[in-house]
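Q:
Just now I want nothing more than another pair of eyes on a protein record. Here is the record:
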Amino acid sequence: MREDEKFQIIWDNAQRMPEMEKALFYELERKKKWVGMTLVLLLFAGGGLIYGGRVARGAMMIIVDVLLLGAFFTLRGFGPMVFGEIFQASSLILAPLILALYIYSGWAAFGAIEDYNERLYVTVFDRSLP
């Protein structure tokens, strides 16, 4: 189901709800920021974006994260191929890139979750069409 269709169904149902039920529905359906940030740290970098509703961007970030981490660990000597000390030292160039990817992913997931929650709030409590 597309996000627009989902919000249209929410709006249709919210028109028949009393105000107290709307508040409860909003609190149950909104995305939690701490869950998104936890997914960024524990899953790959795009986990929080997928939770926030940006699936394509999250999947691309997961692919980039897997490639960067794979290259980093392979050059460090983990895995079937062992490189010399020169490659091990040069693999440290990838560490700031990986860190920057995680910081950007957390920031983007935070924004995606805020956008989703704002749209949900307007859809539930506003009387006009979404």
